[in-house]
UniProtKB/TrEMBL annotation, chain A:
<dbReference type="Pfam" id="PF20259">
    <property type="entry name" value="tRNA_Me_trans_M"/>
</dbReference>
<keyword id="KW-1015">Disulfide bond</keyword>
<feature type="domain" description="tRNA-specific 2-thiouridylase MnmA-like central">
    <location>
        <begin position="207"/>
        <end position="271"/>
    </location>
</feature>
<dbReference type="InterPro" id="IPR014729">
    <property type="entry name" value="Rossmann-like_a/b/a_fold"/>
</dbReference>
<keyword id="KW-0694">RNA-binding</keyword>
<dbReference type="Pfam" id="PF03054">
    <property type="entry name" value="tRNA_Me_trans"/>
</dbReference>
<feature type="domain" description="tRNA-specific 2-thiouridylase MnmA-like C-terminal">
    <location>
        <begin position="280"/>
        <end position="353"/>
    </location>
</feature>
<keyword id="KW-0547">Nucleotide-binding</keyword>
<dbReference type="GO" id="GO:0016783">
    <property type="term" value="F:sulfurtransferase activity"/>
</dbReference>
UniProtKB/TrEMBL annotation, chain B:
<dbReference type="InterPro" id="IPR016454">
    <property type="entry name" value="Cysteine_dSase"/>
</dbReference>
<dbReference type="InterPro" id="IPR000192">
    <property type="entry name" value="Aminotrans_V_dom"/>
</dbReference>
<dbReference type="InterPro" id="IPR015422">
    <property type="entry name" value="PyrdxlP-dep_Trfase_small"/>
</dbReference>
<keyword id="KW-0663">Pyridoxal phosphate</keyword>
<dbReference type="Pfam" id="PF00266">
    <property type="entry name" value="Aminotran_5"/>
</dbReference>
<keyword id="KW-0479">Metal-binding</keyword>
<comment type="similarity">
    <text>Belongs to the class-V pyridoxal-phosphate-dependent aminotransferase family. NifS/IscS subfamily.</text>
</comment>
<dbReference type="GO" id="GO:0051536">
    <property type="term" value="F:iron-sulfur cluster binding"/>
</dbReference>
<keyword id="KW-0808">Transferase</keyword>
Amino acid sequence: MKLIAAMSGGVDSAVAAARAVEAGHEVIGVHLALAANPQKYRSGARGCCTIEDSHDARRAADVIGIPFYIWDMAEEFHDGVVEDFLAEYAAGRTPNPCLRCNEKIKFAAVLDRARAMGFDGVVTGHYARTQVSETGKTLHRAVDHSKDQSYVLSVLTVEQIEGAIFPLGDTTKVDIRLEAEKRGLAVAQKPDSHDICFVPSGDNAGWLRDRLGSEVGPIVDQDGIKIGEHKGAYTYTIGQRKGLGLTVPTADGSPRFVLKIEPVSNTVVVGAREDLAITTMRGERAVWCGPAVTDQVQQGFVQIRAHGAALPCTYYFDGTLLTATLEEPLLGLATGQAMVIYDGDRVVGSATISETE
Amino acid sequence: MSPAAFLAMSDQLQQLGNPSSLHTHGRATRKTLEDAREVIAQKIDCLASEVIFTASGTEANNIALKGLFWNGKKQGKNVVVISSIEHHAILDPAQWLKNHEGAEVIEVPVTSDGVVDLQFLGQLVSDRGSEIAVISIMHSNNETGVLQPLEDIVLIAGDIPVHTDAVQSFTKTPLSYKKSGVTALTLSAHKVGGPLGIGALILRRAFEIPALLHGGGQEREIRSGTLNAPSIVAFATAVKDSYDAQRVLGLRDSFISGVKGLIPDAYINGENSARLPGIVNVTFPGTQSDTLLLLLDSAHVSASTGSACSAGVHEASHVLLSMGHTEETAQSSLRFSFGAISTQADVDFVLSVLPDVISRGRAAHK
C-alpha cells in the first residue's frame, strides 16, 4: 500500500513508520505543524509541536530512508481542536483535545488529503490494534494496556478505521524503545508526552484564565448558600477536592468536592463525596467504530478516562443519546469527556457525555 | 557539481599549505588561489583585488549591506533601500539593521511582471537621496528569474552606493561588474557548478567597509578566516565551464508551451519580463504547492516552492505576493529550474507526469 506516516518527532511514530516500511509498504513521512507560532525547543512533558520535534521527525525519516514533508495543519488544528477545547470549558464541560485531534486532524484532514493524493491510508504510532472481521476492520485495545490509546481513537468512523494503520498495537512501550535503539533512531529515549501539546507551560488553568478571563464567582453548597469564591469556574473539574479555598467547614469536618459547574451563572457547586456518585451517563455525538449500537440493551464495559478502568455496564442507543448504566456507582464524572464502550477489547463506539445521574 | 570542479577540488584538498604561510607549500597554494581569483575576476569583469572570498553568498550580502549602512551612518545617513523581492539573505540583514541599528528600511515595490518600480525608486531618491546609506537590489530574482534594470537603478542612485545580489545571474546572463557601476556585488559558487560553502563579494578597489569577522584580516581586512583554497579553486574551475544559454532557453520555452497545453489555466509568473534562461515559475490554480512537490518528488521530479519558515512550513512566497498574488495563488506556485545538463527528454518526462500530479493536487484541496 501507499501510506502517509504521521511523524510527531517521538519514538512511537518513528518506529511505526519504520515497521510500515519493513512490512513492504511505500511510506512517506509527514510531520504535522499544528502550532501557528511553534516554540523553538521542547519543554516539559510535551512530545510534539516544537521546531526541535520537527527536526527529530525529519532525522527519523532520514534514518528510516523515507521522504519527509511538513504539512501545515495549524489552522485546522486551531479551529477544530483549540477552539473546541476553549468552547467546551466555557460551557462548563471537560473536553479531551487528543480525541478531537484524532477525529478532525489525523484521521480526517490528513487522511482525506492522503486519499485524494492517491495514498491508501495513514500510519500512526498509536497503541491500538485493528482486526479484519466479517463486518469490516474493527478497532481494539493494544496489547500493552498501560499504553493503550484506543480510548482517544474511539471517535473514528468505520471508514476512517479502514484507512488507519497502527503498527505498534502488538508491542509494549519498553520493547518499542529497545527496537528504536536497534534501528538507530536517536529518539529512542525521548521522554513520553503527557501534557496538552498546545499549552506550552503545562499550566492548563493559567492558560484557560488567559483566554477565557478570570471572572470571580461564588462557590455554593447544594442548598445554594455561598461558602466561598472561585477565580474562573472553568478551571475546576468535577470531583476536584483540592484548591477550593473554602473557609466555612462542614459540620462533621468532611471534605467537599466539586459537584457541578454552571457557566451561565459562573457558579461552582460543591458537596459531599457521596453526592458525586452516579450510575447512569448519557452521551451525544455518538460514533460507531464497527456495527452500530441499537436500542437493544447490551452488556459491555464503559471507559470514561484515557487511562481509566473499563467499568461493567449495560448500554443502548435510542437514536440520539448513548446511555450506559453502571453496575457499581462511580464518583466524579465530568460532562464533556468521552464515554467509550468496549466489547471485551473491541471498541464499540463512543459519545460525548452530556448528562449524568 | 561540475566534474571539472570536483577534480580540481579533490586535487587541491591533497595539497599542503595555508595560502597565508610564507614557506614553499604556502606560496604554492597562494599561487593557485590567486590564479583562481583572476579567473573569477575576469569572468565578472572586475579587478582581481576586488574579489573578497566569503563562506557563502549570504555572508557576502551581510558584509555589503551592513558595511555600506555603517559607512553611511557615519555621515548621518540612516535609510536602507532594498526591493520587496530580495532573497532572505538581504531581507533579514535589513530587518536586523532596523531592529538593532535603528535603520529605516524602505522596500521598493515591483510591478505585476516582477520588475522593480523605477518610478518609485526615482521619486524616493529625489525626495530623500541625502538620507540613503545604501541601495541593494538583486540582479535577477531567484524565484521568477526576472532580470532587474540594474543600469537604470545605478543611474538613479547617483552617488549612493549600490549593491546587487547577482548569485542567480552569474554565468547565466551577460553581467559586467565594471560596466554595471555598482559598488558591491555578491556571487556564490554552488549556483555555477562549484562547491557549497564558498562565495565572493566583489567590492570596488580601495573602498573600505567595516568587517563582520575579525581575525587574520586575510581578505583586505574586510573578511578574516583561513582561505578555503580547495573550494576557491573549484569555484574558478566551475566558472570556466561553458553555459549554453540558448539551449537552456529552448528547454524552458518548450516546457512552458507544454504546460500551457496540458494545464490551460496555469500561468507563468513574470512572463512579460526579460528572464534568466533556466528558471520558470508557474501558478497552478486550485492546488497547494507543497502537495505538488510531494507528488512530483514521488514521480522523481524535483521542483521548489518559494520558501519555508524555520518550522519547515511552506509559506506564501513574498516575491509572488509583491507581484500582486493572493496568499492562495502564491501558495499554488512552483519553480522549475533547468541546468546546463538538462535535456529535452527531462522536459518531456516532467510534462508526462504533470497532468496526473495536478489533478491529484486539486483533489487534495477541494
